[in-house]
Design brief:
The protein has 184 residues and is mostly beta strands. The chain is 11% helix and 60% strand. The protein has two helices and eleven strands. The longest helix is centred in the N-terminal third of the chain and has 16 residues, at 2-17.
Length: 184
């Protein structure tokens, strides 16, 4: 009889432990696990030979490679002219800034809005701080007071006053493209 009671207790314990539900495992953030440092509410100045080119802000920043590479989340970058006047603001869900190379790449829902009401939307944008240029090989939409242009690939200053488009898909309104005059 005693053996039956022990056997029933073992069966009940096994049944209770194997009710088909496993504990939920929370996925870890691989960036946070491997970063040299993690910071929240980050703001850093991007300069070139002492000249302020941009100010990068992010909700979260992961520092790598001796703090020379920053992986930013919910990024906002404000661009400045040579005289220190704000001329455009970039926002994106994520980005990478490399201080050794002087480059930044913004990814996912990238939007650049200039002080003269131009708005550029793309999925990926590169910034070269030494030449003060933004560029992309991705599809983009440029909206300005005179019309909307859709294209693939461009190079420009952050204010988009010197825009070189690689391929125009559609466009309405008037756009001034350097070297080509006015484009319909």
């Amino acid at each position: 009889m005693r053996r039956w009671i022990v056997a029933l207790c073992i069966i009940a314990a096994v049944a209770a432990c194997s009710n088909g539900t496993e504990p939920k495992v929370r996925s870890a953030n691989p960036l946070a696990d491997s970063a040299d440092q993690v910071m929240f509410g980050v703001s850093t100045m991007i300069t070139d030979q002492g000249l302020l080119r941009a100010k990068l802000q992010a909700d979260t920043a992961y520092f790598f490679d001796g703090s020379t590479r920053i992986e930013a989340r919910n990024e906002k970058t404000t661009f400045y002219t040579a005289t220190g006047v704000e001329n455009a603001v970039l926002t994106s869900q994520e980005g990478t800034y490399n201080s050794v190379r002087g480059t930044m790449q913004a990814r996912k829902n990238v939007v650049v809005v200039t002080t003269d009401n131009k708005r550029l939307e793309t999925s990926l944008l590169n910034y070269d701080q030494r030449n003060n240029l933004i560029s992309s090989d991705s599809a983009f939409v440029l909206t300005q007071p005179t019309g909307i242009m859709r294209g693939i690939g461009f190079t420009s200053d952050p204010n988009m006053s010197n825009l070189h488009v690689k391929r125009v898909i559609t466009g309405g309104g008037t756009f001034t493209l350097p070297g080509s005059g006015t484009s319909p």
